[in-house]
Amino acid sequence: MSNKPENLTLITDDGLRLDGRRADEIRPMKIEVGVLSRADGSCYLEWGRNKILVGVFGPREAHPRRSQRADSAVIRYRYNMASFSVEDRARPGPSRRSIEISKVSREAFEPVIMAELFPKTAIDIFVEVLQADAGTRTAAINASSIALADAGIPMKGLITSCAFGKVDGKIVLDLNKEEDNYGEADFPVAMTQDGEITLIQMDGNLTPDEIKQGLELVKKGCKEILEIQQAVLRKKFETPVEEVSEETAPEKGAEKEVLEPSPVAAIVEETPEEAEEPEVEISEEVEAEILASEVIPDFEDELEEEIEEELEESEEDLETEEEEFEEEALEEEAEPEEDLEEDLEEDLGEELEEEEEELEEEEFEEEALEEETELEASLECAPELKEFDEIEARLEKEDASIEAEEEIEPEAEEATEEGLEEEAEIEETAASEEENIEAEAEAEEEAEPEVEAEEISTEAEEAEEEPEEEKSEGPWKVVKDPSEAGTRGEKDE
Amino acid sequence: MDKKIVIPGDLLSDDVKKSGYGTYVKNDKIYSSLCGIESLKEDKVGVIPLAGAYIPSVNDVVIGVVIVVTPSNWILDIAAPYDGLLHVSEYPRRVESREMPEILDVGDSVILRVRDVDSSMKIELALRDPNLHKLRTGQIVEVEPVKVPRVIGHGGSMISMLKKETNCSIFVGQNGRIWIDGKDEDIELLSKALRKIEAEAQRSGLTDRIYNFLKNERMKEKESKPVEFLKNEKTDVSVAKEDHSEDIYRKIDVLLDPKN
Known about the structure:
- The complex is a heterodimer of chains A (493) and B (260).
- Chain A has 493 residues and is of the alpha+beta class.
- Helix content of chain A is 51%, strand content 14%.
- Chain A has helices spanning 96-109, 136-150, 177-182, 208-237, 248-259, 272-276, 284-293, 297-331, 334-369, 371-384, 386-398, 400-412, 417-430, 433-445, 451-465, 467-472, and strands at 29-33, 41-47, 50-61, 74-81, 121-131, 159-167, 170-173, 185-192, 197-200, 203-204.
- In chain A, strand 1 (29-33) and strand 2 (41-47) form a beta hairpin.
- Chain B folds into 3 domains: 3-47, CATH 2.40.50.100; 58-133, CATH 2.40.50.140; 138-218, Ribosomal Protein S8, Chain: A, domain 1, CATH 3.30.1370.10.
- Helix content of chain B is 33%, strand content 27%.
- Chain B has helices at 100-103, 148-152, 157-166, 184-199, 206-256, and strands at 5-6, 11-13, 23-26, 29-32, 36-40, 45-49, 61-69, 73-77, 83-87, 109-117, 123-126, 134-135, 139-142, 169-172, 177-181.
- In chain B, the strands form 4 sheets. Chain B has a 5-stranded mixed beta barrel with strand order 7-8-9-11-10. Chain B has a 3-stranded antiparallel beta sheet with strand order 1-5-6, with no helix packed on it.
- In chain B, strand 3 and strand 4 form a beta hairpin.
- Chain B is flat, with a radius of gyration of 28 Å.
- Chain B starts with a strand and ends with a helix.
- Mean pLDDT of chain B is 85; it is low at 234-242.
- Chains A and B meet through strand 3, helix 4, helix 5, helix 6 and helix 8 of A and strand 5, strand 6, strand 12, helix 2 and helix 3 of B.
- Chain B: It holds the Pfam family S1.
């Protein structure tokens, strides 16, 4: 604005500016995304002779801690001009100007960044101006916007920024150095893609009409810039298309499911067939089952082992107890069974009980989250309890009265509630998988007070609803847990 | 390609009820808030992110590294903006506070489950599960959390293929940390493969691509190995010769020795 050389004409008579642009044209813009490997998101932008490098970090833990906000992320924007970025070496470090630009630029982004999703964190935006040629703050905002998107930070939209100014009494878009220095006004604006203005500054003098006129220009300029930004981002994330494979559709499906915010981490074992064939779309449930089932087998095995070991020891005890058992059995069929179970459990020791409790706890937890998990768990637990079944069978051979019990079973449905309850429980422990379902069906008919039983009833429903899916799980021979993988593992005990 | 890339601010749908992950609603319309792939389901419109940090959610299984041991908590880095807390009571057995560093010390890696995340993002972790344990061997490779589903593959196809082809054990944490264990060369191969997965995450037919990559690498190894082997043999032979000849000379010397 001052000491403009006499012979300098910023705009020629036919409306061309110093660099050959028209009044409503922006300088050529070149953008690269993801240029910094250590940053979460980055962008290098050249706009005319401006060169801007932006790195975005975060969301990350905010330090110092007192700067944290309990309900949202803090956005920190640092605009810095490299000392070599201008003709006369700029004093390094923050200056009044850079602090101000940092502040207004940060405020330009605050409306669009969904900071409330990341409480207690900080999102850092570092802007380095490597070469300045007027309009660096607008260039920096354009670049930051891309870098933020590149960092995967949720935003309501991209921010685009552009300046207009008054040069030789004319309103022009996107001033360059000379125009900025010798023009009459500079008016940077940043806006969302809907045209909502998030930054507006003015340096110089403009009339309201000129501002209106200028804002129209800026809108047009921002639209152009937005298109460039979008194109660059789309290109960055685009899939490099080489071979069009049939797999695409199912793969996408998988992605959807697995990418859902709360999937259980998968540990899937070797399934040779699966590697080759792009499976038929697997429904969510099946997938969930697969994931869920991976969690279970481990403790199932453990439990089985323990039971096997200790059952052998306990068999002798059982034999001696049989006499008592017989007597009681005559009085009431179900009760001795219960006793037997109790004895057994005592013999098996605390560990087993604990194990089972834990198992149940887990079942509940998982139930809350994934019903399938629970189904899986209960079904998979059933087989190992066959051990009980075997012993019972042996006892039944010896004792006719107990044999009779099986005949009574169908009648049991008409018997007292208590008896039924216990019957159901017996079935639960004793039955193999199919029998288990039957038993659960029985259990379903009664409203049982025990949580266990309730659980079973829901399980039964599910079991009836989706037996095919059970089978469809076939190829997915799940799962050896990593803790079993020979080379390593051990739990800390 | 039916994968549509969306960027923040893209209009996804006019039906407000369908708003899903990675979207926001404005003026009764759904817009994307992330860079990612549009995912359209019957009842939900969402965005599958292609970038972004790992934000813990309940029941995620993650790999954490102990950074602080306090009298009743272990504080773990779980590759998220937030640190995780593992309370002693969440350890499978009772632990006195003085023995805590013996069980898990600073720098130890552990597979954990996220037990709870509250609104102020306090992450509570748990170790009470047979699958969860300390990692004593192997290595941890970090990939971008958004690429984790690609490492697992469709229904686990990728991970099972990797296991089969490299003879390694793998555990993929939801937070992008991947634990691998096996022979040194297998681990090396596998981590190369993982890097490749990360780099080419958006390509189609990734599993086949990685399969071929592993095959090629194996071939290269086989080709390169025999050469080394021959070289070794040669040197061995020559060394043996020398020994032999020396031996003979000594014997001859002995024979020629007039004192005998």
